[in-house]
Amino acid sequence: GYRSRAAYKLLEIQEKDRLIRPGMRVLDVGAAPGGWTQVAAPLIGRNGRLVAVDRLAMDPVADATVICGDVYEDAVIAACREALPEGVDLIMSDMAPNMSGIASVDQARAIDLAELALDMAQRWLRPGGSLLIKVFMGTGAEELRRALRKDFKKIVVRKPEASRARSTEQYWLALDFQGVAQERLD
Ligand code: SAM
C-alpha cells in the first residue's frame, strides 16, 4: 500500500501523461510521507535517480535518496543539487504550506512554494525537462502561469479524481523546458 492518498493523484497523472520514465533524474519536492516517491521509484528504476526532499522526516524508500530539510534554506537546496549531479529531467512539487486559516496568507504562501519549485526548475532542468506543481487557484496563479509560459513549451492542467474534494487545488504540468539552466551541473 501507499503511505498517502496523494500517491493516487500522481498515479492518475502518470497514467495520462507518462511523465516518469526509466532512467530519469527526478526531484520530488515536499515528498513526505513519501507516496509520490513510492510511485516514482519503480518507474524510474536503478538507472535513474530519485531524490525526495521534505522538511518533515520521512521513512526511506528503496532506490530513493531522502533529504530532510526546508527548501527555503540554501543548504537544503545545495544538498538537492549535489544529490543530482547529472542534472534533472523532472521536478515534481506537491508542496503545500501549513494552513493558517487566513485565506490570503495561505494563498500567498502556496504560490510562493510553487514559485520556489519553478526557481529550482530554472536553475537545474535539462533541455526538454518537465515540472509538475501543485497550484492553489487564486491570487498569483495567473502570474505564475505567465512565468511558466516563458520557459516551457506546453502547460497542461490536471485535476486528478483523488483531489476533487480540494476545490482550488490543481496540478500544472509544464513540459519541454526551453530555458537555459542557470547552473550547469557537471
Ligand atoms: N506528495 C506527498 C506524498 O505523496 O506523500 C505529500 C506531500 S504533502 C501534501 C506536502 C508536503 O510539503 C508536506 O510534507 C510539507 O512538509 C512539505 N513542505 C511544505 N513546505 C515545505 C518546505 N518549505 N520545505 C520542504 N517541504 C515543505
Summarize the structure.
By secondary structure, the protein is an alpha/beta fold. The chain has one domain (about 5-175): Vaccinia Virus protein VP39 (Rossmann fold).
What does this structure look like?
The protein has 186 residues and is α/β, with parallel strands linked by helices. The chain has a single domain, classed as Vaccinia Virus protein VP39 (Rossmann fold). Helix content is 35%, strand content 26%. It is built from five helices and seven strands; from the N terminus they run αβαββαβαβαββ. The protein has a seven-stranded mixed sheet, sandwiched between helices. β1, α2 and β2 form a beta-alpha-beta unit. It is globular and about 40 Å long. Bound molecules: S-adenosylmethionine. S-adenosylmethionine binds next to α1 and α2. The site of S-adenosylmethionine (SAM) has 22 residues, from α1 and α2.
Key structural traits:
186 residues; alpha/beta; Rossmann fold; seven-stranded mixed sheet; 26% strand; binds S-adenosylmethionine
